[in-house]
Known about the structure:
Elements lengths: L4 H27 L25 H12 L14 H10 L6 H29 L7 E11 L5 E11 L2 E12 L2 E13 L1
Antiparallel strand pairs: 1-2, 2-3, 3-4
Amino acid sequence: MKLNIKSVYLCNGYMNFRIFLMSLFFLLVFFSKAQLYVLKNTPSDSRSMKPVLFQYLPVLCDSFHTMLTRKDASSIKDFVPDVNYLKMTFDTLALDFRADQVIVKQQMILRGLQRDYRKIQKKLDALGIKFLKLGFDSISYRYGSDDNNNKYCYVTHHYSKRKNQFTISYIAIVLNDHWFVGDKLELKIVE
């Protein structure tokens, strides 16, 4: 068997080139550092967030009115007590609730308000009205308490647009001396 000198040089050259590429690859891997890309405005973990606490009902109502103009149903969670706050409230009131019942209660309040808020948005869209175009007139309060001395308030925001009058109403509740939005968020057209 005869070996051609050209084929030996090509074979050695090919092997040298493969060794060069592999060593370059391993050097790059060895000296490079992996980096994790992090967004600038990443939201923090929702479990670590403290609930927004309102000691006065007018402050809650003003903040809730501002939230209504944003068209963001997820921001309603700032006006609903979180699970830890509800658990603390039930413990303070000596109510017997399991942890899963507290979570279900909190989620029922939150999902109900978000569903009602989407209904309001659909109703306004069907009428061809943008919420920002509604003129804010006033807020009315009707305070009450139940048999267990739990305090609540029927809050009604009054709006107008041209000759039409609108109201958005909801129930605000007091838990451990702080106000939260509780239930029955609805839009009515006053005729």
